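Team,

Forwarding the record for the chain on the shared tracking sheet. I've put the sequence and predicted structure together so nobody has to dig through attachments.
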Amino acid sequence: MSDPQISTDMTRDNTCLFTGHRAIAESARSPLYADLLRCILKLHGEGIRYFLSGGAIGFDMLAAGAVLQAKRFSKDIHLVLVLPCRNQTERWMRVNSESAVANLQAYQHLKDEADSIVYVSDLYYDGCMRDRNAKMIEMGSRCIAYWNGSGMGGTAQTVRMAKKANIPLINLW
């Protein structure tokens, strides 16, 4: 099975990326999802048609799900998964085995429903997550974040990259 290809009408100007923390309090999930959906539809009204998700557990998957929901309102909203590697989920069982199966099922559903998938690498390597984040920065002109302001981790790294690239940031924290 081949990967869905990126549409030729996708440009940096009509593309938004997501970045956010993996851990989301259960009480915050529903309001955050509603905020994401409103934000996606607002940006769509401003000409954003493509939404990039890195496919990580937590905010990335929640945001991708909100894009799929938004697609019910408009056929010209597209989910693009920008994944660090084809074996991204290989280590998930080690992290939290109780929710690993649910996360794997949700991830597969997102892959099945995505309009396009971009892989940074075939296999995991040190730095592939950073390279995935950099790829999304190259591809997007807006950034929706779920960032607590911490200077550590991949979300902070991506926020710094976005600021350096003068990409407007919408922080839903």
